[in-house]
């Protein structure tokens, strides 16, 4: 109900100005957007890489959280992080049904993910990554993650 | 009323509802009419028929049904809601606005606080915009004789085209779907021509191209639109009532602090409401010109800055 109005406004702002390391790649409709993020400091885990995020919106955005995943192609790997599965699914409380708030927006989600990468030092995947990636058939928003730790 | 009529009316209403759901509005209207003959004391029969007539664009019928329904039941959100839509369709924005506001009041004061608030709030905005449009047209007419004349002749032609289509529909020459499509086509054509004329005039009048912005403190942090009915939360932030309620229905927390927050904790922010109203009044209609989500330009020149409408249609 709100989605297209609100997204059209976000788009105007995004086209105007974005924080360093965040770029708008594609927003041809109000269903799916692509954003690129880079980590701005010299964290060896992520230096020189650009990561691509796919946002999928429902009609109820921003009351309902967008679905946000990393996508992989030749030039965009999935970043290594203990909360990011190797298929691009992200375990972050603010993207979760209960952690989301409608005052968040595409830009603030990108900034949160950027800082989640910046502050990470562990070169590892979440526990059970292989099994999860092999068996998961659910949409990210329907998965209820158990947050193993909130320190990262 | 003979015994059994009430029951018969109820049966007819249910049949009408089934047809309505299937999109057969003519049949639904006929059944509701039969129901009303059996029982003319049930306000819901009138609002149901009004809704069917809305779909059929029988505006006068909608208005009569709504008034009849309101007479039987004064606290009648649906009747005011349909009434406003019919009034706006027949170009009576003042009456439409007061009906829409009445519907909105009844809605937010009802115990359910349903999601209707958002829909009705959008209707209120549409009525305000229609009202502003009329005033603005007058103003433009006074100031710019030539542009006004050109616009008026375009509009006359457009209205004539629409009347022709109506006549052909009436005579059975074309079907309803075809008529609606043709009307839409004529409308697009008319708006395009009008925009072109306005563009030409706007270019020769650069003062009017100035870009204005709504200050952030008048903007709802959820929809990013100027607020009509702001309410304040426990931490002092204000949101548009209809949208914060949508959020609270899913998650009873403050959007910023995540602390528990319920609908009953919300208080109207009257000073901010007045500030929003004053801003809209001063800046006239350009803030209203946002059926497609834009709030950043004068409606007369809006087409210069918003190629974004294309997104809506995809």
From TrEMBL, chain A:
The keyword Kinase does not apply. Residues 2-152 form the UBC core domain. The keyword Membrane does not apply. Pfam families: UQ_con. Keywords: Ubl conjugation pathway. This is Ubiquitin-conjugating enzyme.
Automatic annotation (TrEMBL), chain B:
GO terms for molecular function: peptidyl-prolyl cis-trans isomerase activity; protein-folding chaperone binding; ubiquitin protein ligase activity. GO terms for cellular component: cytoplasm. One of its GO terms (biological process) is protein quality control for misfolded or incompletely synthesized proteins. The keyword Isomerase applies. SMART domains: TPR, Ubox. Its EC number is 2.3.2.27, 5.2.1.8. InterPro entries: CHIP_RING-Ubox (IPR045202), TPR-like_helical_dom_sf (IPR011990), TPR_rpt (IPR019734), Ubox_domain (IPR003613), Znf_RING/FYVE/PHD (IPR013083). Gene3D superfamilies: Tetratricopeptide repeat domain, Zinc/RING finger domain, C3HC4 (zinc finger). Residues 213-286 form the U-box domain. Keywords: Isomerase, Repeat, Rotamase, TPR repeat, Transferase, Ubl conjugation pathway. The keyword Endoplasmic reticulum does not apply. It comes from the Eukaryota. It catalyses: S-ubiquitinyl-[E2 ubiquitin-conjugating enzyme]-L-cysteine + [acceptor protein]-L-lysine = [E2 ubiquitin-conjugating enzyme]-L-cysteine + N(6)-ubiquitinyl-[acceptor protein]-L-lysine. CDD domains: RING-Ubox_CHIP (cd16654). TPR repeats lie at residues 9-42. PANTHER family: E3 UBIQUITIN-PROTEIN LIGASE CHIP. This is E3 ubiquitin-protein ligase CHIP.
């Amino acid at each position: 109900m709100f989605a297209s109005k609100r997204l059209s406004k976000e788009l105007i702002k995004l086209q105007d100005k974005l924080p360093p390391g965040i770029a708008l790649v594609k927003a041809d409709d109000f269903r799916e957007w692509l954003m690129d993020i880079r980590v701005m400091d010299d964290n060896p885990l992520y230096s020189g890489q650009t990561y691509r995020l796919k946002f999928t919106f429902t009609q109820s955005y921003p009351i309902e959280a967008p679905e946000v995943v990393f996508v992989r192609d030749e030039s965009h790997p999935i970043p290594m992080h203990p909360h990011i599965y190797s298929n691009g699914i992200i375990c972050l409380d603010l993207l979760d049904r209960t952690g989301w708030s409608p005052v968040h927006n595409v830009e603030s989600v990108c900034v949160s993910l950027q800082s989640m990468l910046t502050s990470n030092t562990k070169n590892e995947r979440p526990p059970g990554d292989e099994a999860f990636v092999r068996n998961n058939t659910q949409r990210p928003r329907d998965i209820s993650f158990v947050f193993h730790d909130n320190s990262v | 009323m003979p015994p059994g009529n009430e029951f018969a009316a109820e049966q007819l209403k249910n049949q009408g509802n089934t047809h309505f759901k299937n999109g057969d509005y003519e049949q639904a209207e006929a059944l509701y009419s039969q129901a009303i003959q059996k029982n003319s004391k049930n306000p819901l029969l009138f609002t149901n028929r009004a809704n069917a007539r809305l779909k059929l664009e029988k505006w006068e019928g909608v208005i009569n049904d709504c008034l009849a329904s309101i007479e039987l039941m004064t606290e009648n959100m649906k009747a005011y809601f349909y009434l406003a839509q019919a009034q706006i369709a027949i170009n009576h924005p003042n009456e439409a606005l007061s009906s829409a506001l009445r519907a909105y009041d009844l809605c937010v004061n009802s115990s359910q606080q349903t999601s209707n608030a958002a829909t009705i709030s959008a209707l209120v905005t549409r009525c305000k915009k229609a009202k502003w449009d009329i005033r603005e047209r007058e103003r433009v007419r006074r100031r710019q004789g030539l542009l006004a004349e050109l616009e008026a002749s375009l509009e006359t032609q457009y209205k004539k085209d629409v009347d022709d289509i109506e006549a052909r529909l009436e005579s059975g020459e074309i079907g309803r779907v075809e008529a609606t499509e043709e009307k839409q086509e004529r409308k697009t054509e008319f708006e395009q021509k009008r925009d072109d004329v306005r563009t030409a005039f706007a270019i020769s009048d650069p003062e009017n191209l100035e870009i204005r912005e709504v200050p952030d403190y008048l903007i709802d942090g959820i929809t990013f639109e100027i607020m009509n009915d702001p309410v304040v939360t426990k931490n002092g932030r204000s949101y548009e009532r209809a949208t914060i309620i949508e959020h609270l229905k899913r998650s009873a927390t403050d959007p910023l602090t995540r602390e528990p927050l319920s609908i009953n904790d919300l208080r109207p922010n009257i000073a901010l409401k007045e500030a929003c109203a004053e801003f809209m009044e001063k800046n006239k209609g350009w803030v209203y010109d946002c059926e497609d989500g834009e709030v950043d330009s004068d409606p007369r020149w809006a087409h210069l800055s918003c190629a974004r409408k294309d997104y809506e249609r995809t």
